[in-house]
Every structure is written in C-alpha cells, then in structure tokens.
C-alpha cells in the first residue's frame, strides 16, 4: 500500500527540481508540506535591480518612482527575512535597462542614487548559503567589498562592468575573497579597478580565473604577483606587444590546463624581439587563441585541444611547419578556406579525432536570392578528398556567407547550383574513416548532420530549406557537446 | 536482452537500451559485465515494472534522432517504447508540457499505483521522467501548470491553508520573480 506520505520529502524535492517555475508556484499553494519543499527552489536565485542605466551609459544613475523604490525595499526585506534568506544560493545584481523596463526613471540625486544598492549590501550577510554572486554595472564601496568578502559560502564571483568608487580603501591584508572562481569582465582600454580585486583573491582557493579587462591586470611589479598553484582554467585579455610581461604573469599559473587568450597588437616582447613561451603553462591541454598567438603553445606536447578564433587561411598555413602529433581536437574559424587549407590541416595534425572548421565569407549578391556555389562545390570536391586521417571520429564543416551588394563589374553567382547528396558523402567519408561517428555539414542554405548510434538506428537530419537550416543550426553546440 | 526479477519474483526480458535509461540498472549491468545474470529489483513489483517498461500500443511518433515526440509532425511506425524511457533528462528539462496518449493512460492509474510508480522511479533513478508529466497538463491548460486544486486531487492532498495564508503565499511568490 503506497500513499503520498510514503514518498519522502527528498524525493519530492528532486522531482520539484525538474519543474518549471509556474509549476512550483502551483505546488507551493497546495499544502504547507509542498510549500516547504518548493520554497528552497522558488527562492534559490535572487535577482535585484539597484538602479537603472540608459544602455551602457553608466555615468548617469537613474531611479524609479518613490513608490517603486519602497516596493523594491519591501521585496528585498522579504528575501532577507528569516524563512527565505537561507534558501538563497545565487544573487544577480543588475541595473534595470531604462527604456526596456515598464517603469519610469529619473536621474537620481547624489544622495539617493545608491539607496537600493546600499540596502542590498547591508542585507547580504543574511544570505548565509550564498554561493554565487553576479554583479553587473555595480558601483562598489569599501563596505560592499567587505560584505562580499565575509560571505563564507561564496565560491563564484562574476563581475561585469563593475567599478570601485574613487578613494575607497580596499585593504588586502585584512580582507580576503576565498572563492574558487573569479571572473572580471570590463573594458580593456581604461583602468577598471581589477588591480584592487586581484590582491583579495586567495591563491590556495582559486581554481578558475577569467579576466577580460585592462591588460596590465596584475600591476607592473612582477615580483609582487603571488603564485596561483591550483588555477586550472584561465582566460586573459592581453596586449600582444608586451608579451614578455604577459608570459611573466602566466608563469605564476603553473597548473593551468585550459587557457584562453584574446588580445591585440603584434606579438613581440616589450623591445620588439620574438618571444619564447617554452617554460610557461607547462601542463596546458586546451588552448583557445587568435591566429597571432597560436604558435606560442602549438608544439607543446601536453596540448591536445586547439581552438583558433577568426583567422586568415594564409596567415594560418604559414605557421604549419612539420607535424603535430599531440593535438587530437582542432577547431578553427576562417574567413574563407579551400581544399588546400584542409589538406594542410590534415597533414599537420595526423592524430586528429575531432575537426571543426567554420568558414565565414563575404560574397556578392546577384539579385537577393542568396545562393552561391562555394559550399556546394566544396562538398562535391570533398567526395574525392583522401587526406583525412582514418582516426577521425567527429567532423563539422560549416559555411556561413554574408551577402554584400553586387558590384556591377563583377560576375554574379549562378542560381543554378546543385546541392550534393550529403548522405552519400557521409557514406564515402565513413568508408575512409571507419571510426567516424559524428558529422555536421552546413552549406548555409542546406544542412546535414548524422550521428552513429551504438543502439540501432543512426540519427540523421537533412534539409535544403534555408529557414529549416537556420533553426536547426541553433542546435549545433548541443549536438557537438553530446 | 536483460532479465529483470521483481520483488514478487516475476521475470521480465527487456531490451538493454530501454532498461539502461534507469541509472540504477545501468550501473548494475556494468557491475555484472557481459553475463546473463538476472538483475534483481527487490523494491519494484511486477505490476509497477510493467507500467514503467510496457510498450505503448499503436503508432508512436519518433523524431529523426529516434526519440519520442508527442506533437504531431512526422508520424512513422516505430518500435513501441514507453516515452518515459526514451527521453534524456536534459530533453525533459527543455520540453515542458507534452502529454502523450501514453502519459494520459498513465495519469489515469489509481492513486496507490501512482505513488508506487513514483517510489519505483526513484529507486530506479528515472523519476525525473515520470513525475514531471503528471504534474503538468499542457493539453488542458494551454501549456501552463496544473492548478493547485488539480494537484491536490491527483495526490490526495488536504488543503491546510486558510484563504488569507493562500493569498499571502501568492503575494510572496510574486516577490520571488524578477521585477
């Protein structure tokens, strides 16, 4: 004999975890028992708006009406109340978008502008189970930073376009932010206060660090930068022309396995000489970079996954000398490519099991019909391409075209293109690469994907409809990650 | 095929890829390796296991990935499989409200069986797939949630709130949302 009482609360709780919000609200209204089970889920994530901005114009702080401010404060007090605050696991503090919100905003006075923000930080300590803090466009004071540092359960902090008020004293000797993940995203051309945050981080706790901000992120004094012995994932934005400085900073992260570097400028040391990265990031496994800095870690034996963002095929092939026997997964975005580039990739990476190539090119539009023969020709020629390694398991080739106005003197593309039979191409590829399990072939106007199943029917999709392809394309990341 | 033995000692031959949707059975199969050893399920009765693994009757709609779809698009004859065991957990999270004929049949089981199935699903570690569908009712409520009154009826719940308390919870739930 089973009854509702025999189903333990923990089981209900796990079931409730999978339900959308409106279902949880309905369940919370059925009985006090279901209310108690649904509350931790309904009140796990707190989103709060402390003021409003017009777009990214952050120098003028706007506030809603007095009544709306009072309502926001009442809501904040409810969330900070005894029965609710302990359920809060994450906070997102983000300004309203004036213009998109239904509320009306006016410019705040100097005295009142941070009334809601300060009220939030005054109550932050009540959220005793807070694990994630996400601040967007937040103006930090010493008091706010101190409160954040005292949130003991906090493991992850993400700060986007945040600033620290002028003249605030942040003392790294008395304050520490013991999080395992810290992300700071800001403009790269102005001083943004990252130098005040970095000394607060505890090197023994930190595992992930993402910095998209002013490049001299650790200050000029390299000797003063601590070692971060446990950081395994690192993202930085760097000025490539000061690469010696960048590499000296990177040498403080000896355990990094996943590294992403974005930046600008010519790759040089400070004095214009070539750089040598042979001793930094000794255990790097996955590297995401631009074409300019691909060479820094390309021949590292530990490197198995390489992702190169937007690249000219000529600049890319110039860097391929010899072979690379360690990289098994390669992902690149070109501005146009052809068979010879593909052959160069296959020759250079003989151990590849996973290859994803995206080609983005501009083509001239003839009369608005948006079709050309670049992708169809490529896929037709791919049937005779024999350079793929037999070890290849996953292949994606994606063509994206941007159509620009036709220059009358140029030849227009023909509409009469024949779309190759991609399921037949799949059969040819499987014959050449018996281990092939996953295929995604996207010609912009048509799309084919296939996944081998170990349990019977393979999964296959094919369309020559531009709109269907557009919809299906959105599933690429899920498909590829599965 | 895998041989399952229920608490009342009935034996069921079931396709491996179906039963592997249960995390518990999958782990057990990994433990016993390639042997034909029966998998004992001491917490699941035969009547419940039938409900969890029995095929639906008639045509089922399967998408190109071989997964179950209950919305009408392309109908093809397919091996009959219970949708519960066909969907991955992620898909269940994404898909909100489809109620198939199979589910509706399921919903009509008596309350005792309902709770037994929940407990069995918990034991077999496929509960996410089961219970979500019972709590939602897209067909009748325009893809919204089941109203509280219906949930009470479904699970035999006594409303222990005063009207004032109910009004207060509604107000607090509004505060839960982003504003």
TrEMBL record, chain A:
This is L-aminoadipate-semialdehyde dehydrogenase. It holds the Pfam family F-box. Residues 7-39 form the F-box domain. It comes from the Eukaryota. The lineage of its organism: Eukaryota, Fungi, Dikarya, Basidiomycota, Agaricomycotina. InterPro entries: F-box-like_dom_sf (IPR036047), F-box_dom (IPR001810), LRR_dom_sf (IPR032675). It comes from Mycena sanguinolenta.
Automatic annotation (TrEMBL), chain B:
Pathway: Protein modification; protein ubiquitination. InterPro entries: SKP1, SKP1-like, SKP1-like_dim_sf, SKP1/BTB/POZ_sf, Skp1_comp_dimer, Skp1_comp_POZ. The keyword Kinase does not apply. Residues 72-96 are annotated as: Disordered. Pfam families: Skp1, Skp1_POZ. Keywords: Ubl conjugation pathway. Gene3D superfamilies: Potassium Channel Kv1.1, Chain A. GO terms for biological process: protein ubiquitination; ubiquitin-dependent protein catabolic process. Residues 146-176 form the SKP1 component dimerisation domain. Residues 1-52 form the SKP1 component POZ domain. Essential component of the SCF (SKP1-CUL1-F-box protein) E3 ubiquitin ligase complexes, which mediate the ubiquitination and subsequent proteasomal degradation of target proteins. Component of the SCF (SKP1-CUL1-F-box protein) E3 ubiquitin ligase complexes. Belongs to the SKP1 family. This is E3 ubiquitin ligase complex SCF subunit. It comes from Mycena sanguinolenta.
């Amino acid at each position: 004999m089973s009854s509702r009482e025999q189903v333990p609360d923990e089981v209900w709780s796990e079931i409730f975890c999978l339900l959308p919000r409106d279902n949880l609200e309905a369940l919370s209204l059925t009985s006090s028992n279901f209310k108690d089970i649904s509350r931790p889920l309904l009140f796990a994530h707190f989103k709060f708006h402390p003021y409003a901005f017009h777009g990214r114009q952050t120098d003028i702080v706007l506030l809603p009406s007095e009544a709306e401010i009072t309502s926001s404060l009442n809501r904040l007090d409810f969330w900070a109340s005894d029965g609710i605050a302990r359920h809060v696991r994450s906070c997102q503090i983000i300004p309203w978008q004036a213009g998109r919100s239904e509320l009306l905003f006016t410019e705040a006075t100097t005295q009142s502008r941070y009334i809601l923000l300060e009220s939030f930080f005054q109550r932050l300590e009540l959220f005793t189970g807070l694990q994630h803090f996400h601040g967007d466009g937040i103006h930090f004071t010493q008091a706010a930073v101190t409160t954040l540092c005292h949130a003991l359960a906090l493991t992850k902090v993400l700060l986007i376009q945040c600033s620290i008020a002028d003249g605030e004293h942040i003392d790294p000797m008395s304050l520490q932010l013991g999080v395992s993940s810290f992300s700071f995203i800001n403009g790269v051309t102005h001083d943004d206060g990252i130098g005040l945050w970095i000394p607060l981080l505890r090197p023994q706790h930190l595992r992930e660090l993402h910095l998209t901000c002013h490049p001299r992120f650790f200050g000029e004094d390299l000797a003063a930068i601590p070692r971060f012995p446990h950081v395994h994932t690192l993202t930085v934005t760097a000025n490539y022309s000061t690469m010696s400085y960048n590499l000296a900073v990177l040498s403080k992260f000896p355990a990094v396995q996943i590294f992403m570097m974005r930046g600008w400028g010519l790759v040089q040391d400070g004095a214009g000489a070539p750089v040598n990265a042979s001793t930094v990031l000794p255990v790097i496994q996955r590297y995401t970079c631009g074409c300019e800095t691909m060479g820094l870690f390309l021949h590292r034996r530990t490197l198995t996954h390489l992702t190169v963002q937007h690249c000219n095929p000529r600049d890319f092939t110039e860097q391929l000398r010899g072979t690379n026997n360690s990289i098994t997964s390669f992902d690149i975005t070109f501005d146009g490519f052809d068979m010879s580039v593909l052959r160069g990739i296959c020759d250079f990476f003989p151990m590849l099991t996973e290859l994803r190539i995206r080609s983005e090119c501009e083509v001239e539009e003839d009369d608005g019909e948006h079709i050309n023969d670049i992708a169809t020709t490529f896929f037709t020629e791919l049937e005779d391409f024999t350079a793929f390694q037999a070890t290849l398991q996953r292949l994606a080739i994606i063509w994206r075209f941007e159509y620009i106005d036709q220059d009358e003197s140029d030849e227009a593309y023909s509409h009469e293109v024949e779309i190759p039979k991609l399921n037949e191409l799949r059969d040819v590829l499987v014959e050449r690469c018996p281990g092939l399990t996953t295929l995604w072939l996207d010609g912009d106007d048509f799309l084919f994907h296939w996944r081998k199943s170990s349990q019977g029917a393979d999964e296959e999709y094919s369309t020559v409809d531009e709109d269907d392809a557009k919809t299906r394309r959105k599933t690429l990341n899920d498909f590829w990650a599965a | 095929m895998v041989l399952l033995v229920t608490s009342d000692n009935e034996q069921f031959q079931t396709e491996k890829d179906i039963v592997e949707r249960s995390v518990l059975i999958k782990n057990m199969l990994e433990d016993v390796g390639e042997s034909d050893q029966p998998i004992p399920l001491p917490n699941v009765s035969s009547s419940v296991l039938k409900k969890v693994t029995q095929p639906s009757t008639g045509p089922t709609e399967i998408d190109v990935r071989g997964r179950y779809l209950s919305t009408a698009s392309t109908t093809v004859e397919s091996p009959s499989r219970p949708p519960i065991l066909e969907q991955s957990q992620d898909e269940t999270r994404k898909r909100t409200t489809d109620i198939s004929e199979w589910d509706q049949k399921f919903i009509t089981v008596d309350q005792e069986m309902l709770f037994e199935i929940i407990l069995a699903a918990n034991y077999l570690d496929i509960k996410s797939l089961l219970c979500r569908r019972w709590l939602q009712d897209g067909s009748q409520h325009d893809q919204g949630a089941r109203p509280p009154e219906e949930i009470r009826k479904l699970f035999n719940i006594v409303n222990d709130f005063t009207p004032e308390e109910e009004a207060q919870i509604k107000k607090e739930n509004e505060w839960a949302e982003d504003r």
